[in-house]
Design goal:
This is Putative NAD(P)/FAD-binding protein YdhS. By secondary structure, the chain is mostly beta strands. The protein has 1 helix and 9 strands, in the order H-E-E-E-E-E-E-E-E-E. The termini are far apart.
């Protein structure tokens, strides 16, 4: 029988212990009201090849790797072909539809099958939890040739 570990417990277990020193860190964080995450590349409606470069944009916040608890920072997650947002009060799960960029990456290359696909960005904090007012991009659609 497999044992289940909740995503929140998983995030707590694998967040560097220094992030919780002196009980000053919290797993809940806030974002500035004017924070924005968006796609620089590709553009909404664009036709792309199966292997495509994706570049993330972020305004009024900084990028920090997972495990780094700094105010007004976070790291990117791409949601691919996701009709319903995951529970934004919990750590975002890592799946084939939710890709984590916990190293603080601001661009990547992904491979998609031919056809229409949607992409959306969600900024997560040091524990992969979206901020208490989530910073989420507009969903874009690309057509893969």
């Amino acid at each position: 029988m497999k044992k289940y570990i909740s995503p929140l417990l998983f995030a707590l277990l694998f967040t560097p212990i220094g992030a919780f020193a002196n009980n000053t860190a919290s797993i809940i964080s806030t974002a500035p009201e004017n924070a924005e995450v968006y796609f620089i590349q590709p553009q909404d409606g664009q036709t792309v090849s199966q292997k495509l470069k994706v570049v993330f944009g972020l305004k009024n916040m900084g990028v920090a790797p997972a495990g780094t608890d700094r105010e007004n920072t976070g790291h990117h997650h791409i949601l691919i072909d996701t009709d319903t947002l995951p529970d934004l009060s919990q750590p975002l799960p890592a799946t084939d539809k939710i890709i984590h960029f916990g190293g603080g990456q601001t661009e990547t290359e992904i491979t998609l099958s031919p056809g229409k696909h949607t992409l959306q960005l969600v900024l997560g904090n040091h524990a992969h939890i979206p901020h208490s007012k989530p910073v989420i991009s507009k969903k874009i659609t690309v057509t893969v040739k």
